[in-house]
User: Fold these one by one.
Assistant:
Number 1:
Amino acid sequence: MTWTPDQPIVSLKKVHKSFGTLEVLKGVSIDVMKGEVICIIGPSGSGKSTLIRCINALNDIQAGSITVEGQEVHDPDLDMLELRKKVGMVFQQYNLFPHKTALENVMMAPLKVLKQNKAEVEERARALMKKVRLDGKEDSFPGELSGGQQQRVAIARSLAMNPDVMLFDEVTAALDPETVKEVLVTIKDLAAEGMTCILVTHEMGFAREVADHIYFTDRGVIVEHGPPATFFDEASDPRTQEFLGQIL
Amino acid sequence: MEEFFREMAADYPRWNFIWMYDDRQQGKVLAGLWMTIELSILCLIFSVIIGLVGAWMQGAKSRVTRAIVQGYIQFFRNTPPLVQLLFFYFALGQFTPVVTGDDGWTVEPIISNVGWAVISLSFFAGAFNVEIFRAGIEAVPNSTLEASESLGFSRLQTYIYVVLPLAFRVCLPSLNNNLVNLVKTTTQAYAIAVPELLYHSVSIWNDYPSAQYPTMLMLFVTYILLVGILVFGMNRWERNMKIPGYGT
């Protein structure tokens, strides 16, 4: 089956995931169209992070199906590199390579994995550093940067692989309040350019502003979903109401 | 200079620095020193290689492989190096093939006593190095590996570009310690008549009891200098490898 842009770029169908006897995802289905921004919210332990990690096969699944551009992610014959080129991921703890400078972090995967020409990669990496508003910090090591700066390097590092979909796993949860904004602005820019983004977040204001669609998960199922306007104002399920009541 | 030590030996019979004025004895000291340096360098190199390979094998999926490495470590770490040297040379040495000399009737084992010393001491220090490297590898956070995985790095690429550079920095101080011990342990090769510094020193003071104190003094000073040079080099290396802002 070949994928066409009018079909969902990421599609989860009745996904089940367990860690041992603990069932974390109990039949989750989500469709994401190209260029859409999706926010997944919900209480801790509701399976949000697990869900997003399954999309680029960092976690395996027990049942159901996940496809990216029509390709089954959990097919044992899948060329993992093909998937990783399509899907970029940014983590809560940035996870930069501490022994490489910011610029080297951005350049490393295109150089070593895609074996691209060094001069071209460097040019692109410098442009990306500029895009995340970190020009001038190219030669700093991660340990010399603030959390917000590190996180933006991590975003640039993912973008260097030219992904079609970006996954953000609670990327502002470990940041100081004043640096949260700079990271959110970067993500907003990306969304405005038409990048497909799937975010797990606790930033409700941001979700309301940027998301095309919001999913609320609790105890491994999607309780409710909808566009931000209706979701935040007309949530019908008591669990959603309770959650929103606690944080809004 | 020579005259000074000659007179000193005449005036104070216990302080005969014979190798300062007797060319034959001086030759022994220099030959011994050279053998000690050679032995140390060879054992350093081989023990580090054994350590790297062993640590890599310990991460293998196969239980048998891991058990073999574990058995090796337990044997070499828990038995005295002197006993190991004697065992290698006298027990294993009997089973190695021999080659006939040019004269047609003398036979020489293909592995000489020096060869056995290198093998035995390298395996001894290598056992410690395996554990040292393993500790370094385990110190690399799993999340960093996940980041590299999601950028498309294969397991081997992750190992080469991320795990080893980080692990190496973590284990340099303990590696330093072990290599210092190795240099000092080379003196035990004396027991299988490897003509290193201690061997020649003993032979000098057996011939000239008046040279015993000076030669012992020379041994202490020489090992302090040798180990000092090694530690100096390792510390410089450690400083050069230091990552700005990392681990502080």
Note: The longest helix of chain A spans residues 177-192.
Number 2:
Amino acid sequence: MFDGLLMLGGGLAHFFTPVSLFNIAWATLLGIVIGALPGLTATMGVALLVTLTYKMAPDQAILCLMCLYCGAIYGGSRTAILLSIPGTPASAATTLDGHPLALQGKAGTAMGLATTSSALGTIVGIIALALIAPLLAEAALKFGTYEFFWLALFGVIISGQLTAIDDPLKGYIAGILGLLVAMVGMETLHAHQRFTFGISALGGGVDLIPAMVGAFGFAEILGVMKRTAQARIISSGDRVIPRFSEVFQYKWTTIRSGLIGTFVGIVPGVGEDVGAWASYAAAKRVSKEKHMFGKGSQEGLIAAETGNSAVIPGAMIPTLTLALPGSAAAAVLIAAMFIHGIRPGPLLMTENPEFLYQIVAILLFSTIAMLIFGLTLTRPLLTVLQVPRERLMAVVYVLCVVGSFAITQRMFDVYVMVGFGIIGFILREMKYPMAPLVLGIILGDLLDLNLRRGLLLTNGDPSPFFTRPISAVICVIIILTILMSIPAVSTRVRSIFTRGRGDASAQG
Amino acid sequence: MTTDTPAPSETAPEPGMIKADLLAGLFFILLGLAVFYGAWTMDRLEVRRIHPMTVPGLVPGMLAIALTLCGTILSFRSLRTPAAGGWQHLSGAVLSSAAARAATVMLLALIYTLGLVGTLPFWAATGLFVFAFIMVFECWLSEPRKPWLKSLLWASGLAVATATVVTLVFERAFLVRLP
């Protein structure tokens, strides 16, 4: 316990230098701007910034990426409130109550509450990260090759299930496609080249960063430029800094949404958008002012913004302790960590325990920066929203090209970016989620290697995959998840429960 | 997750999307079968006497089966769901002005990435791309169209600025040899 506090102090002191504070300030501000601009998402911003931070020291590079990530998730709320367009997918739930508040002349109040809620949500998540991550890392040391196989599969399945709630089948297909992409290139057990078709550039497989820049950058540009309608900005001159009573009034909503967001963050590959929707739905269910939801409810706005921001620290829990990305942006962070020689996973707490607390410190500093910028820079951020997308997207595409080229300096990566952009756009148009695809690419190698290594260790006997306790539990969860996504099964299970409840109330 | 999640999930699927699902399902079946063939015929490294359960084609083969299965379910589901006028909806969506805008972005991006980059110096290719992109979308494909003189000035200014800044920052600060 004291070790943890000491290391947290060390982490805070480590970044309390002029250079670090400067990096925190610009990266968070850049994040807010990226988040606020429709069409630029947090994942895209983080993926593009990896290139720019390539030459930095590892701690400063991760600092910039994390601050941009936090800033962007918050920045999306600005657009959601003023334009009724979510700046990032994470702010979709914010539009429901944020924009009606702006229409009622309370844009300032909405922006202020979104800022404080985002900060509080991140803090709830940070506390969970500092408490849960060391315990999970210790537990993860018991995980062997069998458990890691199931964890990789669980990540892809659960991400497929939760990011495409209305149609899990499309989520699963996206996950399988991602896993298939990961099969390209040299496999690690016998060093055999798979599906390279004699192309030497495919020998090392498909790099995650160009694929992400394509799927989240170029695909997003195509999606934004497709639309013709321009939204009208609604703003008002009311106070932005909220009163203490306004924030304190919904303390339980804040805590509940923070916890839900953190939990959603822990679930692999399920990101901020699901965190926001889940906390919004929970807040609506227990609220005394249900009728106000969707018509400018402050509680709804607080729930959505707390929920999406709490996902960020939550997502860092599996990212750091199991190397399973908690969200799409966390997948890019894992790639960036590998580039900088940091190996996330169960050994992180043994090899580099101070790193976890440095992440906690970064998140704290970023929250403070977000709070300051969010409450003070109202006017300049309004100007950002007025940038015509025709001009912005041309420059963003150039950055996508340079960003994918710069890391390994080969044109092949640019072609990968273009390919993933076009395929990603078509898949998005057909309502396939991108997160399982990305998770598949990052977890494919882990799944393949651990399955075959496990079979090698047991001389071809698959039984330990089902008989070891942790393996068996994860396996059962996977089977139940898949079964529950089949409409016929889930309706039948639900009817059994409702019948049971009906019988009980009839007897009572 | 809860049933009262207000995500845009409660709307019924559009007829065009149901037909698009059928095409996608058939594509996934074909892709799955092709990958399965590739995995089945993949070198099993018998010369190196590896365990037959650890052959490199094992996981790709399993994934191919899963993809084929998912593709089949998607196709069957699409065939069973009534979608009156689905093909017209789908062709309407593919031939819409929105799709034309997306296709224009793709065309401009492909000309820039596959044609200009590598042929012209990077700064020139970038400048040309930014200029063309802004002019096309502001003076031709926007509704209402913007005054061409103003767009011309903006497009030229941004083209020069982007080409200069990106080239200088990446070549001088990050020491990247641009294509």
Note: Confidence is low (pLDDT under 50) at residues 1-10 of chain B.
